[in-house]
Amino acid sequence: MAIFLTKESKVVVQGMTGSEGMKHTRRMLASGTDIVAGVNPRKAGKVIDFDDRAVPVFGSVRAAIEATGADVTVVFVPPPFAKAAVIEAVDAGIPLAVVITEGIPVHDAVVFHAYAAQRGTRVIGPNCPGLISPGQSNAGIIPADIAAKPGRVGLVSKSGTLTYQLMYELREIGFSSAVGIGGDPVVGTTHIDCLAAFEQDPDTELIVLIGEIGGDAEERAAAYIAEHITKPVGYIAGFTAPEGKTMGHAGAIVSGSSGTAHAKKQALEAAGVRVGATPTETSRLVRARLAQPGDVAAH
Predict the structure, then answer these.
(1) Within the chain, how many helices (H) and strands (E) appear?
(2) Active-site option among 24, 107, 113, 249
(3) Relative to the CA of 102, which of 13, 161, 242, 249 has its CA 20 to 30 Å away?
(4) Is 299 annotated as catalytic?
């Protein structure tokens, strides 16, 4: 199995006819994603050829859903128009919206997240690499060749780069699903949402969290793990990042002891999570844990 995205998922791409949309649509198709439509009001009625697959373009998400049965949208729309694009998808009844766009104003993200939550649409992102269920489907920009093998590890990450590195480090074990939730101050799907889904997924034997310094998302995840998660959990994040500085796209600010890598490490270890200082160390912890016979049912 997998979480959120499977081989049955039918994907529409908002912004497919732009340069980024075209590039990543081709990559998603090459990794087996069932992309059934693109959306661009100015190019409705066109058909775009991607090697051996022709993808029709519709004028709206609603029209694409009605014609194809799409149940996932991947959003490559530029920041000024991203809020309207997500709201359009929500109004059309899409169950899952994967928002890749970087640089969306926080106020816009707050608005469309609240709107989606009220109407039952799951949003992943924004400013995220998307998600992949290897061997099934890939919605976003995660390179499929670093995780071509389905496997036993479930991954949820705030960092795109660390996602790719850890997937490469554990490529011989493979992943049930890997979800990049994004590092913006406001995101839709959280570590806790993914933990809950992986806990229920019979093909996920171990869960890895990747975080970033700043905020208290990981501390809240630690409390959830202690109460609800029976599977082993590993963690990696920002142990070399300096305190007191805004950290890149995430806008994560560390102040005093709040939000530091050390504080997160303490909270997670108190919940039984194995914490690695680097992706390589975390991958070693994962391999060692999975190698323990009959002992993957408790963290």
Answers:
(1) 9, 16
(2) 249
(3) 242
(4) no
